[in-house]
Amino acid sequence: MTVETDESFGGVTPDAARRLLLGAVQAFAERGFHATTTRDIAGRAGMSPAALYIHYKTKEELLFHISRVGHERSVAVLEEAVEGAGDSAGRLAAAVRAFVRWHAEHHTTARVVQYELAALGEEHYARIVVLRRRSEEILREVLQEGVATGQFAVEDIRGTTLAVVSLCIDVARWFSPEGRRTPDEIGELYAGLALRMAGYRDGGR
Amino acid sequence: MTVETDESFGGVTPDAARRLLLGAVQAFAERGFHATTTRDIAGRAGMSPAALYIHYKTKEELLFHISRVGHERSVAVLEEAVEGAGDSAGRLAAAVRAFVRWHAEHHTTARVVQYELAALGEEHYARIVVLRRRSEEILREVLQEGVATGQFAVEDIRGTTLAVVSLCIDVARWFSPEGRRTPDEIGELYAGLALRMAGYRDGGR
DNA sequence: GTCTATATCGCGATAGAC
DNA sequence: GTCTATCGCGATATAGAC
């Protein structure tokens, strides 16, 4: 089994803190937050259980760090993609392609980010919710813009946005590197599906 | 707070076993399997912790029962919908409408069904996986049929099926009865989106 | 900063009276 | 079939040596 190295946490120092973060991401993704023991996390980082508490106050704080950095990364990826280029169709396709690719490539982190929210403490949760709103907002604006210019045909913009975001996020649940598709292929497929959902018609396909 | 009564488990007897099942569904959906204590489940059923073990061998067996019945119900709903009626477009719309509605209306059960699979024991997990294949199969056949008759235009049938199933399932993650849409409305919206994903063109909309 | 050892707690599951 | 009481374990987190 290969250990997925995730550059999302590449900048974390000291080294021990980063190793703990990576171990925690893997463990949380495999078993879930509550089923993961601090012994397990510390073990993956090559340390004793006690060493964890030098770098993080609690297990929950470790989860919060993962969740925060993960959300920031995925939103950043989305923002870069839409800024990139072109008309609404190009922007929507780029956004979905990038967002899906992130959820597939970083499915370990993404799983924690998307499915362990309930394990966060109250104030930590509140801070994460703020970040989450952005991704939906970005995609909604692209759809709105496309409808305004007549490139898209969408009756329920809010609902369709929700569906597109939902489609992208769920990739984290089912994606496996052993599966038959690469992150790039899924991104491409989903970009096309999102355009169809938006009522976009290219050359008459 | 109102207790969601879920007819999925209406037939379970004796009464105490059903109350435990319903308590477990709620607790698992709110906190997750591992964060739920047997004391919590028993409390919701109005019993002492020990009474749980008269009706179920372990906490995991309780999860398995929920997962099995839940999967059976959702697949049954899907099967009834596609049998119903019409051409491929009608069948796809009916299937998505019904599947989405089930995940919204029974979002508590659905959340456990879709997101607590990893907590199942090995043989229990294997038995559930068999059930899960059916729902994908049903939707894939509808898409295939529609492509064969020329009503749909889909290049990657497997991938598009996966996306449609994924879209429906993710409803369980975000749906809230306090949200702005009813299960019926979401079902209707998603049925239309699925038709678009399938490349279906009605009257020139 | 990391270790070994351990305090303290609450879990899943069982025993035995009724 | 349900209760009260409890066993045995493993969890998070801390103390104190190095």
TrEMBL record, chains A, B:
Residues 14-74 form the HTH tetR-type domain. The keyword Cell membrane does not apply. It comes from the Bacteria. Residues 37-56 bind DNA. PROSITE patterns: HTH_TETR_2 (PS50977). The keyword Protein biosynthesis does not apply. Keywords: DNA-binding. This is TetR/AcrR family transcriptional regulator.
